Amino acid sequence: MEAPAGSPYWADWPHSLKAGPFPTPFLQRLPTSGGHTYSQIQFMTDTSATEFNTSCNLVTGKGCVLPPKGPGHFFPFFTLAKVSGKCVWEFGNMNNGRSFGGAKQYGKVGPGTMGAFAGRVRSQPSC
User: Fold this and answer.
1) CA neighbor of 118 nearest in space, from 53, 50, 66
2) Which of 32, 35, 45 is nearest to 5 (CA)?
3) Most buried residue, 17, 31, 78, 81, by most Cβ within 10 Å?
4) Residue 44 belongs to what H/E stretch?
5) Buried b (16+ CB within 10 A) or exposed e, 2-31
6) pTM to 2 decimals?
7) Contact between residue 48 and residue 109 where contact means Cβ atoms under 8 Å apart
8) What residues contact residue 82 under an 8 Å CB cut-off, 6+ apart?
9) CB atoms within 10 A of CB 125
10) What is the pLDDT of residues 8-64, one digit of tens each?
11) Which of 76, 110, 78, 108 is nearest to 5 (CA)?
C-alpha cells in the first residue's frame, strides 16, 4: 500500500470517524484477487524522492528520514480496524485499530527498494 503524495506532513490528517476539524479517513476494504484476500502485504511510500533538504541517498538509504524533516515531523499511516462491522484499512492519523508502528510501518530505503521506504513483507493481518 502506498501513501498518497502531495499532502502536507502536519498531524492534521483524519483522526476520527466523525468529521470535525479534519475530514474522516478514507476507508479501503481489504484488497482481493478472485474474491480472496491477499496472503501478504507490504507498506511503501516514495516520500524519499521529495527529500530535497536532506542528503537522502536513494540507493543506500543513508540520510533518508521518515517523517521528513520539517516543522510538522509527522507522516500519515495505515490502520486496520473494524468500522461498521467491516474490516477496513484507514489512512491518516487513526488510533482505533492496528497501526503497525505508525510511520515505522514503511520501513527503510535501501538497495532493492528503488528509492522508496519499504516495510517488510508480512502476512495479511486480520481485524
Assistant:
1) 66
2) 45
3) 78
4) strand 44-45
5) ebeeeeebeeebbbbeeeeeeebbeeeebe
6) 0.78
7) yes
8) 88, 97, 127
9) 12
10) 556 667 677 777 777 777 888 888 899 898 999 999 998 887 766 678 888 888 888
11) 76
Residues in the chain: 127
Q: Do β-strands 77-83 and 26-29 pair in parallel, antiparallel, or remain unpaired?
A: unpaired
Write phi, then psi, for 102 (nearest 5 degrees).
65, -130
Rounded distance between C-alpha atoms, residue 92 and residue 3, angstroms: 10
DSSP code at position 50 = G
Residue 44: φ, ψ to 5°: -145, 150
